[in-house]
Amino acid sequence: MSGFAIRNLKVFFKDRTAVFFSLLSVFIIIGLYALFLGDVWVKSFEGLTGVRYLMDSWIIAGLLAVTSITTTMGAFGTMVEDRVKKLSKDFSASPLRRSSIVGGYTLSSFIIGVIMSLVTLVLAEVYVVAYGGELISPAALVKVIGLILLSTFTNTSIVLFITSLFNSMNAFATASTIIGTVIGFLTGIYLPIGQLPAGVQWAIKLFPVSHAAALLRQELTAAPLAATFAGAPQAAVDDFTNFLGITYKIGDTILSPRASIGVLLVTAAVFYALSLFVISRKKDR
């Protein structure tokens, strides 16, 4: 399995176009934020100290959540391409077991998602410091890396299921485009959740990737949030974090980090099981 995963890694990183398009959504979000969204949000909270550092940290968290799903989807393109080129039949005829083949695709996609997310984190921290912010603390960095691993693990399961449904590169490319387009809205990057209708807010709260974004926001915005709202009543802090999707509120209860982690773990298990079911049915056919 490890050897097959290494083969997939080489195929992905050799194709610079695939690498670029897997990061296209990230580039779009960065471009929109750098050109006008950043100034819009800073002006919206004018009067608060350190708001630029806070909003930069907020957008970075969303970027990491987006990266962990778009790059894994780009990586799984290798699996669809192998089907189209009939290479999958050659692999099935080889001594490799079917479980090792699927595991190789899954492992390589997970590794690619983690690598690209870590690269995004490094570049984003450089951006934050360049605009007057501070580097993330070592303790927070460890937690953020752990959350990147968790979110990529969940997204790998989701994308494995989506990819298992396609046998055409055109269909897969269309699905990738759709996901890349709506992912910014579903993670509350283009518009904070507090500005959206109640029905859309519920859809975001039910979307697993949004919980990854919330967990990352809680870690990355902790320091700037404490500085910006120093001495402010807790109610004001809660209203602000709920408005920006740093925390999610169900009724009168604010979801704990453990609840969001539970959502990600359950989602990973469910979609992995669904993926195995779909793949096994295709085998029978």
Helix content: over 70%
Q: Write down how many β-strands occur, each being a DSSP E stretch of 2 or more residues.
A: 2
Outline, from the CA principal axes? elongated
Strand content: under 5%
Return the structural class.
mainly alpha
As a whole number of angstroms, the C-alpha radius of gyration is 20 Å
Low-pLDDT regions? none
Largest sheet: 2 strands, antiparallel
Distance between the termini: 24 Å
The side-by-side strand order for the widest beta sheet comes to 1-2
Order of helices and strands: HHHHHHHHHHHHEEH
Number of domains: 1
Helix count, DSSP H or I runs of 4 or more residues: 13
Q: Give average pLDDT, whole number.
A: 84
Give the helices and strands, then pairings.
Layout: H1 2-14, H2 16-22, H3 24-44, H4 51-84, H5 87-93, H6 98-130, H7 138-164, H8 169-186, H9 198-206, H10 208-220, H11 222-228, H12 234-244, E1 249-250, E2 253-254, H13 257-284
Antiparallel strand pairs: 1-2
